[in-house]
Specification:
By secondary structure, this protein is an alpha/beta fold. Helix content is 46%, strand content 17%. 33% of the residues are buried.
């Protein structure tokens, strides 16, 4: 992205297609001049005003609304205006060309680069980095749950909490730096117990926030779930039951499914893409063999695998064979749920009641009757750390993976900091706090070493 922040930037803020209305934005030092040249006057600040729009050759090309925001009280912190014009492509082009015609060597007007309006808002102190990222995510949010989670970031409560934690670290670093560089007569003794208690409170907050953010991560993309197993174990029937519609062909003949069948389901807060795959068996049919290969490849790359096994004839030996097969295909069992299918037929045909092998990551179902489907759905949600109960949305926030990783690393560093404090290793404690501060600064972009120096000089009167 260009560093020429003194340029005036222009961009179409609505979709670049013919429509009833289009919104066009201008931000930068030439905004007032552009406004006067197009509508003939400077509108009242923050008031929507009806005006006629004139092109660079002084011809009226449209009539619409314009809103002017005097900097710094605008989205970007600069003079900014929004034109609301009719959405014909010809009108939009004339408006663009007219704005660009106002460009001069020392007053450049140009098209904005991707995200440049938000970048200027950040550079001018109008938002933190994580808030700027959240705006982009909000534009692309596919579900109400994700919108709610993102708005928990945009309401600034998260940013304030991060800055409070940062202030605590800065204050504590200031004290420690003073104690390391000056005598105890001047600074007093380091009290480890209250320090440890305070840091542990911060660790509790970080732990809760990380858990909420990890739940938010589950909203960030569609999760791929591959359904695999031998032929005629009920994979396609399960797919149809989960989606509550007929997407896969069901037939008593083995090998009906050859190519991968894909369909999307919204489950609770999740968007899930299910993949029904070809039944696994030895075959000389090249087309079917290719389908099996593709299905296993999809299982390797999916977030979760439903391994279907017919309940009839199921025993510990067959289960062990399934586990060995997963190992041979490099599919981690941690991302597998064993689905014991056709439990209704098993009960009908088995006079002697035998117990079904019990596994933590297994569920018995009948896709035909619906038995066990609710339990399977709950297992899917638990796997992704979510609940189908929408009341739990209050525990979800949406952060970029970068920010989540920084929070996790900050938690690890402060945990080490506590242990070092207990041994009175002040040099290590100070370094831990510095590293934790770096992790937080990468989230908000609002912390600098100058603040630490300022705290040291003002609080402890060093240099008297």
């Amino acid at each position: 992205m260009s560093g020429l922040v003194n340029d005036t930037i222009i961009a179409l803020a609505s979709a670049p297609v013919a429509s009833a209305l289009a919104i066009f934005r201008v931000s930068g030092p030439s905004t007032k001049r552009i406004l006067k040249n197009i509508i003939g006057f400077l509108p009242v600040n923050r008031v929507s005003t009806l005006a006629k729009f004139r092109s660079s050759n002084n011809k009226i090309f449209d009539k619409g609304l314009v809103v002017f925001f005097h900097g710094p009280k605008s989205f970007t912190g600069e003079d900014l205006c929004e034109f609301q014009v009719h959405g014909g492509l010809g009108v939009i082009k004339i408006l663009m060309d007219t704005c660009l015609s106002q460009s001069f060597p020392n007053n450049i007007v140009r098209f904005a680069e991707p995200g440049e309006f938000s970048k200027r808002a950040y550079l001018n102190g109008k938002m933190c980095l994580h808030e700027a990222e959240a705006i982009s995510d909000l534009i692309n949010a596919e579900s109400e749950a994700k919108v709610d989670a993102i708005n928990k970031i945009l309401d600034q409560s998260f940013g304030k909490a991060i800055l409070l934690l940062s202030d605590f670290i800065i204050d504590t670093r200031a004290e420690l730096e003073a104690r390391i560089n000056f005598s105890e007569d001047e600074t007093g003794f380091f009290q480890a117990a209250p320090f440890v208690k305070n840091v542990e409170k911060k660790l509790d907050w970080l732990k809760d926030t990380i858990e909420a953010a990890q739940k938010g991560e589950a909203l960030s993309h569609k999760h791929a779930i591959a359904i695999i197993g031998n032929t005629n174990v009920g994979k396609s029937t399960l797919m149809n039951r989960l989606l509550e519609k007929d997407v896969s062909i069901i037939h008593k003949l083995a090998g009906t499914t050859r190519d991968i069948i894909r369909s999307t389901l919204v489950l609770g807060n999740l968007q899930i893409e299910f993949f029904d795959t070809a039944g696994i068996r030895d075959t000389k049919n090249e087309v079917e063999a290719e389908g099996i290969r593709r299905g296993l490849l999809k299982a390797q790359t999916s977030n979760l695998v439903l391994f279907c096994i017919n309940t009839e004839g199921l025993n510990n030996s067959k289960l062990q064979e399934a586990q060995e097969f997963l190992l041979s295909q490099q599919i981690a069992e941690q991302k597998v749920i064993f689905v014991f299918t056709k439990v209704d037929l098993y009960r009908e045909r088995t006079a002697e009641k035998r117990s079904i092998p019990h596994l933590k990551n297994a569920v018995s179902i009948s896709a035909k009757t619906g038995e066990g489907i609710i339990e399977l759905r709950e297992m899917l949600l638990r796997h992704f750390h979510l609940s189908e109960n929408q009341d739990n949305d209050t525990e979800i926030i949406f952060l970029k993976k970068r920010s989540v990783d920084n929070l996790v690393e900050c938690h690890r560093i402060l945990t080490a900091c506590v242990e070092n404090a207990k041994t009175n290793s002040l040099d290590l404690v100070a370094e831990d706090l510095r590293l934790a501060q770096v992790m937080l600064s990468e989230i908000t972009g609002k912390i600098s070493n100058e603040q630490v120096l300022g705290k040291i000089f003002s609080k402890f009167c060093i240099g008297k």
